[in-house]
TrEMBL record:
Organism expressing this protein natively: Agathobaculum butyriciproducens
InterPro entries per record: DUF951
Protein's UniProt name: DUF951 domain-containing protein
Pfam families referenced in this protein's UniProt entry, alphabetically: DUF951
Length: 64
């Protein structure tokens, strides 16, 4: 899956704040994601993150 820094990911499950959208801050074996609802940052293993991604937006257009 082609994910780059600053992409906006829409996940299958909601964050407790109610938002499903996350901004990618760092990529590698783990992703550092920032919730666009509350600003909380989390580190997720790549395998877990890729299973939960519904759509990927890059510069306003949906990539995947």
């Amino acid at each position: 899956m082609d994910i780059q820094v600053n992409d906006i990911l829409t996940m299958k499950k909601q964050h407790p704040c109610g938002s499903k959208q996350w901004q990618v801050l760092r990529i590698g074996m783990d992703f550092r994601l920032k919730c666009l609802g509350c600003g909380h940052e989390v580190m997720l293993p790549r395998s877990k993150a890729e299973k939960n991604i519904r759509t990927v937006e890059r510069e306003g257009e949906i990539v995947c």
